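sry for the spam today, last one i promise. struct tokens for design, 180 residues
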């Protein structure tokens, strides 16, 4: 009978924990929705940052992503880079790949071209066919920002062979880099 009581207590405690966790996740999702609807700009970023202090783990990646995107839109690329870095650590698979792309873009815009180039070279080796165009476009930008014309030219040449809408721009960049 003691074993049955212990099993019953553990079962009730586990069910209580699961209900609490579900309620906390629902509350966090609601709070995130309210922030996204009711605030913009720097005010939104302040609220998202505050929310990160005590949000549940299941909602943390979504809040971090919104904070990164908001910081990018505000031009605060150093802060955005930190959020993207956090998101890399919180995610895996395709979402982690996207977070690394975001981090590299923030690096470029923050003036850290060499760091962005290193990141983009790694991502180019990991990219699936679906990511070829965005990866090589960003690799070209990172290489230019880092002053590596040969790497930029190679990335633009890779883009030239893809079905892209701005082929004249890519051809212009190739001719510009080849003439220098």
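last one done:
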């Amino acid at each position: 009978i003691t074993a049955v009581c212990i099993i019953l207590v553990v079962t009730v405690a586990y069910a209580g924990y699961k209900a609490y966790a579900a309620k906390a996740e629902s509350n966090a999702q609601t709070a995130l929705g309210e922030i996204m609807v009711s605030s913009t700009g720097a005010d939104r970023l302040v609220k998202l940052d505050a929310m990160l202090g005590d949000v549940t783990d299941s909602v943390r990646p979504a809040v971090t992503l919104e904070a990164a995107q908001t910081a990018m839109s505000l031009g605060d690329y150093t802060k955005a880079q930190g959020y993207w870095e956090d998101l890399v650590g919180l995610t895996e698979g395709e979402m982690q790949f996207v977070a690394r792309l975001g981090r590299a873009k923030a690096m470029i815009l923050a003036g850290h071209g060499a760091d962005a180039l290193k990141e983009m070279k790694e991502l180019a080796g990991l990219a699936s066919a679906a990511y070829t165009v965005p990866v090589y476009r960003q690799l070209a930008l990172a290489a230019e920002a880092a002053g590596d014309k040969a790497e930029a030219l190679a990335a633009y040449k890779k883009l030239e062979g893809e079905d892209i809408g701005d082929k004249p721009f890519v051809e212009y960049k190739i001719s510009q880099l080849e003439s220098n």
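The chain has a mean pLDDT of 87. ok im logging off now
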